[in-house]
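This part of the workshop introduces the protein records we will be handling. A record pairs a protein's sequence with a compact description of its fold. Comparing a sequence with its tokens is the quickest way to learn the format. To make this concrete, we reproduce a full record directly below:
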Amino acid sequence: MRLCAWYLYGEKHRGYALNPVANFHLQNGSVLWRINWMGDTSPRGIGASCGMMVNYRYFLEDTASNSALYLGSKQVKASEQVLALVAQFQQNSKL
């Protein structure tokens, strides 16, 4: 889950999220909200994402500012759960 959080939050292509689904939601002003272990146990889900599923949350009053922040300064808004996983990844990573 730590690696998944880092992939969605920290891995970039030209400054934007490497994952196309993450990039879509973040451009539209969402918050990287929650990572669900074994949220998709279908054969396709296991093959594509090791069964993990991600929730993006839209706070309507914040979507315009979140979108502008992401598109302008390439900053990803994320929940405390995701940020904690990212911090754990960074602490334990040799990358």
The radius of gyration is 13 Å. Helices lie at 2-10, 20-27, 43-49, 63-73, 80-92.
